[in-house]
Write a structure and sequence with these properties.
mainly alpha; two-stranded antiparallel sheet; 59% helix
Length: 379
């Protein structure tokens, strides 16, 4: 099982392709060696007794919370997440059944090997600005150029052998503390730690950055920079327990945040809370000009435009650049501008060289030339 976990690291994309292709769930979750091995091991583990551990309760509570979140927010990514989380919970209990204390040195070395393997792959990806091309890189199956092609952004995000940069960030976050347990390479520890943090940053998973900051700066005594936190705490006379409790409360608030936003999640929910939505939107829009709002929305992929007056349209730099407004001499108004067609052809450009006709201006021409010609043809 341990070797399967080591070889797993999301290799399903390269090693386990289902036929027909419609059965492949994509980079959210892949069938992998662990997926196949776990049911077999569970059959042989039903009669093995498991000793109680406080960590089991917290893990099950987290699983229940995730399942509850999924029931309120049923989308494709949440579904894949629940499958992956179920596998992880089963793995945890299988390890609890079979691993012993004397196995810890070997596990530490194994976890460090996986951590450094993913770190090297990620940093190499960042150097190249694309996936390396390994069979192990699950992301290639969906996005050969990296996840940024589907996210439509110019920033390249490393993913290691995983199917998404956020998964790599979570993986590095979990295994990062094992660097402190491996005492025999203490001289290299700071170098490896710096490499892991660099890879962690290059995933550009901002939520994971916040979690790393909270967990490793506030809760860890062993890390060098925790000394700075202690100095800060003593300077402002802060109790360490109070800081931990406050951080825990903030984390709980963040975890519950999706439930707070559920009232704005769907169109019927937003319609039901329409006044609240209008208030929140008004708070934001009242501090910006129409042009600033337009630019911010466009940069974030929101299709938006400004409701412009005729004067706004005439001053619009894009319309000026395309030559939409043409200057003409009107017999009554004088010099004025008229609107051209909204399209422009490179080989047959349009040209407006006269104003719109006056009422009855072409009556004589129509009566004498066209109607007369029509009568002759008829006769």
């Amino acid at each position: 099982m341990i070797l399967a976990v080591f070889s797993d690291v999301y290799l399903g994309a390269g090693l386990f392709r289902l036929e027909p292709a419609g059965f492949n769930m994509g980079s959210g979750w892949w069938i992998s060696p662990v997926t196949i091995l776990m049911p077999v091991m569970l059959l042989f583990s039903l009669k093995v007794k498991l000793k109680k551990n406080p960590a089991d309760i917290f893990l099950l509570l987290f699983f229940v919370w995730s399942a509850l979140t999924f029931t309120f927010n049923t989308d494709q990514n949440s579904f894949y997440g629940m499958i992956a989380l179920s596998e992880s919970v089963l793995l945890y209990f299988l390890f609890r059944l079979y691993l012993k204390k004397e196995d810890q040195p070997f596990l530490t070395a194994l976890f460090l090997a996986i951590l450094l393997f993913q770190t090297f792959i990620g940093l190499w990806q960042f150097y190249l600005g694309r996936p390396i091309g390994l069979i192990a890189e699950s992301i290639i199956a969906d996005n050969p150029a990296g996840i940024t092609t589907s996210e439509n952004i110019r920033l390249f995000r490393i993913s290691g052998t995983f199917g998404h940069p956020n998964v790599l960030a979570a993986f590095l976050l979990v295994l990062y503390p094992f660097l402190d347990l491996f005492k025999s390479i203490k001289s290299w520890a700071n170098t490896f730690r710096s490499m892991v943090i660099l890879a962690f940053i290059f995933t550009f998973s901002r939520l994971a950055w916040v979690v790393l900051l909270i967990v490793h700066l506030i809760f860890s005594y062993s890390l060098p920079y925790s000394i700075a936190i202690d100095r800060f705490r003593k300077k402002f006379h802060l109790n360490r327990k109070a800081v931990i409790y406050l951080s825990t409360v903030l984390i709980i608030i963040y975890l519950l945040f999706p439930y707070i936003l559920l009232r704005f999640k769907t169109i019927p929910a937003r319609k039901k809370h329409e006044e609240e939505v209008d208030r929140e939107v008004t708070k934001w829009t009242s501090q910006l000009t129409a042009e600033e709002i337009f630019e911010k929305l466009q940069k974030n992929g929101v299709k938006a435009g400004i409701v412009q007056t005729l004067a706004d349209l005439f001053a619009d730099p894009q319309l000026k650049h395309r030559g939409v407004w043409a200057a003409v001499d009107h017999p009554e108004i004088g010099r004025c501008h008229t609107e051209g067609p909204p399209f422009a052809f490179s080989k047959t450009p349009f040209k407006i060289d006269r104003p719109a006709p006056m009422i009855g201006e072409h009556n004589e021409l129509v009566f004498e030339k066209f109607l007369a010609a029509g009568k002759k043809a008829k006769n």
